[in-house]
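Notes to self after the Tuesday call (sharing in case useful).
The group wants a holo model before anyone commits to mutagenesis around the pocket. I volunteered. Ligand is flavin-adenine dinucleotide. Logging inputs and output together so the record is complete.
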Amino acid sequence: MRNGQVSFWWQARGIPPRRPSLPGGTEADVCIVGAGYTGLWTAYYLKRADPGLRIVVLEASFAGFGASGRNGGWVTAALPGSRARYARHPQGRDGVRELERHLRDTVDEVARVCAAEGIDAGLVKGGTLTVATSAAQDARLRDRLEQERSWGDDAQVVRYLERQELAGRLQLTGAVGALFSPDCARVQPAELVAGLAEAVTRAGVRLYEATPVTSISAGQARTPAGTVRAPYILRCTEGFTADVPGQAPGWTTTARSRRRPSRSSAGSCAGCSPPRPRRASSTRGAGCSGCPGTGARPSPWTRRPASAGRGATRATGWPPRTWPAARSPTWCAASPAR
Ligand SMILES: Cc1cc2nc3c(=O)[nH]c(=O)nc-3n(C[C@H](O)[C@H](O)[C@H](O)COP(=O)(O)OP(=O)(O)OC[C@H]3O[C@@H](n4cnc5c(N)ncnc54)[C@H](O)[C@@H]3O)c2cc1C
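Result:
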């Protein structure tokens, strides 16, 4: 893999032939900007919910060009960030528990869709191991287990493995013990996103590649080839969002909002007509909670609320600052690379 190529995963698989670009201006019920997991899963479930919906996906490069085709290949139910922080939401601890249940279900849902759509993404659900290799790490693991229990996670969700039981799963010099969570799978991410793109086009979604959106406004996504008009425009551009003209303020405001609260409501949802103000804490990747397929639901791939990903970590505080010091080595048990 040479610097400048898209990713190991795409190199291993090969980049598919480019789909046609948008031929000219058109109309749709929903226009999705960006064909990564956020855009494609949204298109997938919208089409299932209402097969009659006219959905257009506009992709600047090719489906899976972004983080979706370049990530670590973990389909993990781990909640990014602090539960206590999430619990400040009006739904409190119950809301967090509910979210975590969805996150766990989503691992199986991704596997189900792969099977149903014939996506051979090498998905294997082997769980996550967090291994202690010193007494200090072991003490922290046990503390963590207690915390998990205090949130109601039983042994089905996470359990401690003594050295001997761990050795049956992973041979690691100096391993003392581990936490094991079953809700994690490994996947070839480029295969997954390529398969998902095929699935949505099969379902009748119009996916145009090499079609950069140059501006988004209420009911309109403009491209050099023409404008797509739709009552709902979903911006699913994740880490690229700041490069979409006019979108940077809403995208970057959340990170700054603690310091500059006066800007915290600067974002507006391109999906609402007229655009409705969006609070800084609302999801960035795909419009607002008033739009279909968005709001506080976890992204089927990342299982983070809506479209969050590493590109969003500056805003969400994920991973927590305390992790590097406190953390033990963690493996996605089925991952070939780890
Ligand atoms: C190194 C790395 C490792 C990761 N590992 C994991 C992991 O193991 N497990 C996990 O769950 N998550 C992981 N993530 C996070 C996960 O990959 C992302 O959260 C997820 O892929 C984001 O999907 P997305 O669709 O929101 O964004 P993207 O996949 O980035 O898709 C956005 C798309 O929008 C397109 N686009 C951008 N601008 C425009 C425009 N103007 N017009 C039209 N299209 C445009 C881009 O070309 C791109 O295809 C990782 C991320 C990184 C970077």
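Two things stood out.
The radius of gyration is 21 Å.
The chain has a mean pLDDT of 80.
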